[in-house]
Structure formats: C-alpha cells, structure tokens
C-alpha cells in the first residue's frame, strides 16, 4: 500500500491560512484519486515529537566515540533516542511526502526544521561516500506547498527564498530528487488579487493530485 505523509507547519487554523486551505484542497483531491492509499497527517506545530537535543547528541557520542552498548545509556537517553528513531522511521516508511508551510523570515518555520533534523540522519536516511552524501530513501517523491505574502518563486526576490530551496536540497541529500513546488504567493502584496491568487493555487492543486 502506498503511504503518503502529509506534513503541515503552521500554527494558524485553516480558516486563517491560505497555505493550509490549498493543502486541504490537494489532500481532498488526492484522497478521491487514490482511495487505496494510506494517508498519515502530521502537524509539527501540534504534535509532540522528539527533537535532536542535548541528551540525544550525548547518547550518539557515547554510542559512537565511547562504543557503549545502547543498554549502557541512561534511561533518559534511551527513551529520547528511541523516540527520535520513531520519527525517523515514520518518515522513512512513506512513499510520498507533502509539506505545507509558510515562509517565515525567508526560511522554514523552526518546528519544521526540527522535524527535518529528526529524520535527516546519517546512517539512517543517508550515508557519506567519497563523492559526498548518498541518499537511502529512493523512488520517493515530495510536494512542497509554500505560502508567502510576497512573490519569491521568480524574479529578483527569488534569491531570498531559503525555504523551498533548502527543502529541495535536504530532500535530495536523502535521495528524494522528485520534488515539486506549489506556491501560494503574493496575496498580501497584492490584496486586490488575493482571492484570485488562492483560487488559482487551489485549481493547480486539484489538477496535480490525480497524477501525483
């Protein structure tokens, strides 16, 4: 069974987020087109998940540098490493990924960055070789639905987009090279066209879902 991991990263409700609205439109169209697929919805702003913190880093160092057995870690270190592994495994099991996020200060929301750090882990989802990192998650695809008040997908401001460009790069490191973008942008800079901008993005989402 094909599994889709649908990841949102916006503390707002869908009523107040055009990005989430477009994301829900895509998800509904996807469900209708792929009724046999399993869909896992994960909201990084509301779901509790283990991040890479001091205990996790110390545990990794003990396992690697001190060559300790996992059972020799402290109970807290064991619990946190196991919890982080669950996040990594959840992400690695998926066949398709949809990331729905706003651009914040020209980058990703911090909770989404923390979620990415929880599954982009050497030895788990990529490894190092002489020529550089080699991704271990292959034959997978991703869609990034990104919302921003201004326009950053093209033109002189495109160099300021450190959100989609970063996601595209980091997914490539773990082996996911089929990464598409669906931008919902410019609705704040052009309020007179806001409804048309969102409507066009929703139409694109509906057209994209069946083949995706």
Output the strand order for the largest sheet. 2-1-3-6-7
Total number of β-strand segments?
Answer: 7
Secondary-structure element sequence? EHEHHEHEEEHEH
* Annotated CATH homologous superfamily: Flavodoxin domain
Global Rg: 19 Å
- Summed up, the domain count is 1
User: Can you tell me the CATH class?
Assistant: Alpha Beta
Task: Name the overall outline.
Answer: globular
- Provide the CATH architecture: 3-Layer(aba) Sandwich
Enter the CATH topology name. Answer: Rossmann fold
For the biggest sheet, the summary is:
5 strands, parallel
Blueprint of the fold:
Elements: E1 3-8, H1 18-33, E2 38-43, H2 54-64, H3 75-93, E3 96-102, H4 110-119, E4 126-129, E5 132-135, E6 141-148, H5 164-173, E7 178-185, H6 194-211
Parallel strand pairs: 1-2, 1-3, 3-6, 6-7
Antiparallel strand pairs: 4-5
Helix pairs in contact: 1-6, 2-3
Could you explain how this protein is built, in words?
InterPro entries: Flavodoxin_fold, Flavoprotein-like_sf, FMN-dep_NADH:Q_OxRdtase_AzoR1, NADH:quinone_OxRdtase_FMN_depd. Residues 3-207 form the Flavodoxin-like fold domain. Its EC number is 1.6.5.-, 1.7.1.17. It holds the Pfam family Flavodoxin_2. Keywords: Flavoprotein, FMN, NAD, Oxidoreductase. The structure is a single chain. The chain has a single domain (3-51, 90-211), classed as 3-Layer(aba) Sandwich (Rossmann fold). It has six helices and seven strands; from the N terminus they run βαβααβαβββαβα. It has 212 residues and is of the alpha/beta class. The two termini are 15 Å apart. Strands 2-1-3-6-7 form a five-stranded parallel β-sheet, with helices on both faces. α1 links the parallel β1 and β2. The model has no long low-confidence stretch (mean pLDDT 96). The radius of gyration is 19 Å and the shape is globular.
């Amino acid at each position: 069974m094909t599994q889709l991991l649908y990841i949102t990263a916006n503390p707002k409700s869908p009523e107040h987020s055009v990005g989430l609205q477009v994301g829900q439109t895509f998800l509904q169209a996807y469900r209708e087109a792929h009724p046999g697929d399993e869909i896992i919805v994960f909201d990084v702003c509301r779901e509790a998940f283990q991040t890479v913190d001091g205990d996790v880093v110390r545990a990794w160092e003990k396992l690697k540098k001190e060559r300790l057995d996992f059972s020799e870690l402290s109970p807290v270190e064991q619990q946190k490493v196991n919890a982080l592994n669950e996040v990594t495994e959840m992400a690695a099991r998926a066949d398709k990924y949809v990331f729905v996020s706003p651009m914040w200060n020209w980058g990703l929301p911090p909770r989404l960055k923390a979620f990415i750090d929880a599954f982009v882990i050497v030895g788990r989802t990529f490894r190092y070789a002489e020529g550089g990192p080699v991704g271990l998650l292959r034959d997978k695809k991703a869609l990034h639905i990104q919302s921003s008040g201004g326009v950053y997908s093209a033109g002189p401001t495109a160099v300021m987009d450190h959100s989609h460009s970063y996601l595209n790069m980091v997914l490539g490191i773990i082996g996911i090279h089929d990464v598409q973008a669906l931008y919902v942008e410019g609705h704040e800079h052009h309020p007179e066209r806001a409804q048309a901008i969102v409507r066009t993005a929703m139409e694109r989402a509906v057209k994209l879902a069946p083949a995706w």
